[in-house]
Amino acid sequence: MKNPLFYAKILLFGEYGIIENSKGLTIPYNFYQGALKFEESEMTASSNAHLRKYAQFLSENFSDLFDTEAFNKDVENGMYFDSNIPQGYGVGSSGALVAAIYNKYAKNKIVIENDLTKEKIAELKLTFGQMESYFHGKSSGIDPLICYMNIPLLIQSKDDISTIGLPEATVNGKGAVFLINSGEPGETAPMVQIFFEKLKNDGFRKTLKEEFIKYNNACIEYFVKGEYNPLFNNLQKLSVWAFEHFRPMIPQKLVNAWKTGIDTDTYYLKLCGSGGGGYVLGFTQDYDKAKTYLKDFNTEVIYRF
């Protein structure tokens, strides 16, 4: 039997905010994908070695939840994760791996087609958070959840996640949501550590709750409704806020491009994942015009409107 593919994900809204119970909106990104496969070669040895360590982690901590004996045996037989999802780019490379392992080895697997209740989604998220903690130190479980379910999810709070429909994309739309490649990967753990250090500051906590979360939640509301004028009004505020308060997380190569978007009102940038490197997200109502300012960067359109 062919092993199923697990796709990348993009957190459109909610980076860092979901740690403090803001809303989040996440979508699958089928341009990148990964699957568990068997082959022994120089190319697969590195992935197999990583899986060997991960199998040990699950065996030591979660043998009651997974068939770790079968997992270890498959690793011994050369299993690896065949993936083109870039690592450290904020699009769910570890999330897809975790989803693939859960799908194959979970003892009491929750099957999406059968169990699409909020309670089951919350149960999945908890398990995925425990599994992904191996990679990031602490994980919300959101990335593997979206990679496993492969449908847009609305995060109302830490304990309230549901599926959601989005406005249909317009193939030749003038506006776009796009990715910009910073040219180098970022590391999640140090960025999250910076955020937690910032949270110790009362002033930062106040502006996060009163401004960032307010703009973030408004963006989700208007994006889901397809109301683009109020969406961009709030995106502008969100981008300005992040430029001021999330500067350490903005990849250095994109600092000027971030400010140019704000200054020209042509496009607005925001973090994609934890930042520090990898991708950032861009939103524009005129993609061709935005590209003239971003000609030095690789951009990938993920949604047209």
UniProtKB/TrEMBL annotation:
Pfam families: GHMP_kinases_N. Signal peptide: none annotated. Keywords: ATP-binding, Cytoplasm, Kinase, Lipid biosynthesis, Lipid metabolism, Magnesium, Nucleotide-binding, Transferase. Residues 75-149 form the GHMP kinase N-terminal domain. InterPro entries: GHMP_kinase_C_sf, GHMP_kinase_N_dom, HddA/FKP, Mev_gal_kin, Ribosomal_Su5_D2-typ_SF, Ribsml_uS5_D2-typ_fold_subgr. The keyword Transferase applies. This is Mevalonate kinase. It comes from Faecalibacter macacae. The lineage of its organism: Bacteria, Pseudomonadati, Bacteroidota, Flavobacteriia, Flavobacteriales.
